[in-house]
Design a protein that fits this description.
Elements lengths: L1 E5 L4 H12 L3 E6 L7 H10 L4 E4 L5 H10 L4 E4 L6 H6 L1 H22 L3 E7 L21 H19 L4 E7 L1 E3 L18 H9 L6 E4 L11 E2 L1 E3 H13 L6 E6 L5 E2 H12 L5 E4 L8 E2 L4 H7 L7 H14 L6
Parallel strand pairs: 1-2, 1-4, 2-3, 4-5, 5-6, 6-11, 7-10, 8-13, 9-14
Antiparallel strand pairs: 9-12
The structure holds nicotinamide-adenine-dinucleotide and uridine-5'-diphosphate-4-deoxy-4-fluoro-alpha-D-galactose (UFG).
C-alpha cells in the first residue's frame, strides 16, 4: 500500500517509514521540517537500500496534501505531523491548536477530496485524566495541558466525522512514552535545543554534552518517589502503526493504547542506562516539574486482541539502542 506519512522526517515518523518499508508498504513523506531534518529520511533510505519520496510541505495547506495524495496514489495516511512540547503548548497554545487541529483538518479535507479513507492518527497518553492505575481506552479523558487538549480535540473530530460520514476508516493511536532508536544507530531522536524529555537528556549527559541529569521530584507517591511512565521502544511503536494499517476489519473509528503495560520510575531508568552503558550518570535533585503527573501506564490488551500487536523490546534494548544512536551521533543529524 502507498501510505502518506505526515511528519515522516521526525523521530517517530522516520522509524515508522522504516517499519512500513519492512512490511512491504511504500511510504511517501510530507514534512515541513520545522522540527526535523531531511537527513533522517536519507538515512532511512540508506538502511532500506532505496530512496523515499519526500515532499516538503505543511499539513495546514490542504491543497498541497491533496496533490501529494493524488500524485503518489496513496491509499492511507499516517498523520504524525504536529507540535509536541507540553511546556511550549502552555505558553503558545494558539500555535498548538493551529498546527495540530487545523493541520489535522487540512489533512482530512484533502483525504475526502482525494477519496482516501484510511487515517491513522498520532494521539497521546496525555489525553487521559491523571490516575494511579493503568489506563484503558474507555477510561476518562481530561487533558491537563493545551497539547493534550489538541489531541483530544482531534479525536472528538475524528469520532464525529466517522459518525457523520460513512466514508472513513480511522484509528487513533495513543502513544505512551516512546524512547530508544533503531538498532542500527543510524536514526534516532534529535531534539532541537535542550531536550525536554528524560531519555534524550540522559543520553546527552552520558556523552558529556549536559552536566548532570536533573530528577524532577523525589516525593511522588510512588515506591521510590520518582515519576512512573510506560516507556515503549520506538520501533515497537512504529510497528504498531503497521499493525493498525494491516488490521483486517477496521471499524469506522477505533482508539488504541500503544504502550508496554509496564511502568518504570526515573531512578529505575537511570539504573537501566548505567547497566547498559557501564557509565555513572551524575544526578541533580530538583523539585517536581510543573504539570507532571506521578503515574502513567497503559492497559494494552485491546491492541493485542484487535491488532495482534504487542510491544516486544525490553527496557535494556531501549537503553542500548538510545545510547548507540547518541554515541554515534552526539550532535544528532548535524
Ligand atoms: P517530531 O517533532 O520529531 O516529529 C513531528 C514532525 O512533524 C517533524 O518532522 C516536524 O517537522 C513535522 N511537522 C510539524 N508541524 C508540521 C506541519 N504543520 N506540517 C508538516 N509537518 C509538520 O515528534 P515525534 O516525537 O516524532 O512525534 C510525532 C507525533 O507523535 C506528534 O504528533 C506528537 O504529538 C505525537 N506524540 C509524540 C510523543 C512523544 O513522546 N514523542 C508522545 C505522544 C504523541
Ligand atoms: N524527567 C526528569 N528529568 C528530565 C526529564 C524528565 O526527571 O530531565 C521525569 C519527569 O518528571 C517524568 C519522567 O521523567 O517523571 C518522564 O518525563 P518525560 O518528559 O520524558 O515524559 P512525559 O511523560 O512528561 O511526556 C512525554 C511527552 C508527551 C507525551 C507523553 C505521553 O513529552 O508529549 O510522554 O506519551 F504526551
Amino acid at each position: 500500500m502507498r501510505v502518506l506519512v505526515t511528519g515522516g522526517a521526525g523521530y517517530i515518523g522516520s522509524h515508522t517509514v522504516l517499519a512500513l518499508h519492512e512490511a512491504g508498504h511504500t511510504p511517501v513523506v510530507l514534512d515541513n521540517l520545522s522540527n526535523s531534518k531531511a537527513a533522517s529520511i536519507q538515512r532511512v533510505g540508506e538502511l532500506c537500500g532505496r530512496e523515499f519520496e519526500f515532499v516538503r510541505g505543511d499539513v495546514r495547506d490542504s491543497n498541497a496534501v491533496r496533490s501529494t495524495l493524488e500524485q503518489y496514489d496513496c491509499a492511507a495516511v499516517i498523520h504524525l505531523a504536529g507540535l509536541k512540547s507540553v511546556a511550549e503548548s502552555t505558553t503558545d497554545p494558539d500555535a498548538y491548536f493551529d498546527n495540530n487541529v487545523t493541520g489535522s483538518i487540512g489533512v482530512l479535507r484533502a483525504m475526502r477530496q482525494a477519496g482516501v479513507k484510511r487515517f491513522i492518527f498520532s494521539s497521546s497518553a496525555t489525553v487521559y485524566a491523571s490516575r494511579d492505575t493503568p489506563c484503558a481506552e474507555s477510561d476518562q479523558v481530561a487533558p491537563s495541558n493545551p497539547y493534550g487538549a489538541t489531541k483530544l480535540a482531534v479525536e472528538v473530530l475524528l469520532q464525529s466525522l466517522s459518525q457523520a460520514q460513512g466514508f472513513w476508516h480511522i484509528t487513533s493511536l495513543r502513544y505512551f512514552n516512546p524512547v530508544g532508536a533503531h538498532q542500527s544507530g543510524r536514526i534516532g531522536e534529535d531534539p532541537s535545543g535542550e531536550p525536554a524529555n528524560l531519555v534524550p537528556y540522559l543520553t546527552q549527559v552520558l556523552t558529556g554534552r549536559r552536566r548532570a541529569l536533573r530528577i524532577f521530584g523525589t516525593d511522588y507517591p510512588t515506591p521510590d518517589g520518582t515519576g512512573l511512565r510506560d516507556y515503549i521502544h520506538v520501533m515497537d511503536l512504529a510497528e504498531g502503526h503497521v499493525a493498525a494499517l494491516n488490521a483486517p476489519e477496521a471499524p469506522a473509528f477505533s482508539v488504541y493504547n500503544l504502550g508496554t503495560g509496564k511502568a518504570t520510575s526515573v531512578l529505575e531508568m537511570i539504573a537501566a542506562f548505567e547497566a547498559a552503558t557501564g557509565k555513572r550518570i551524575p544526578l541533580e535533585h530538583l523539585p517536581r516539574r510543573p504539570g507532571d503527573i506521578p503515574f502513567s501506564c497503559a492497559l494494552v490488551e485491546k491492541a493485542c486482541n484487535d491488532l495482534g500487536w504487542k510491544a516486544r523490546r525490553s527496557l535494556k534494548e531501549m537503553c542500548e539502542d538510545a545510547w548507540r544512536w547518541q554515541q554515534a551521533n552526539p550532535l544528532g543529524y548535524d
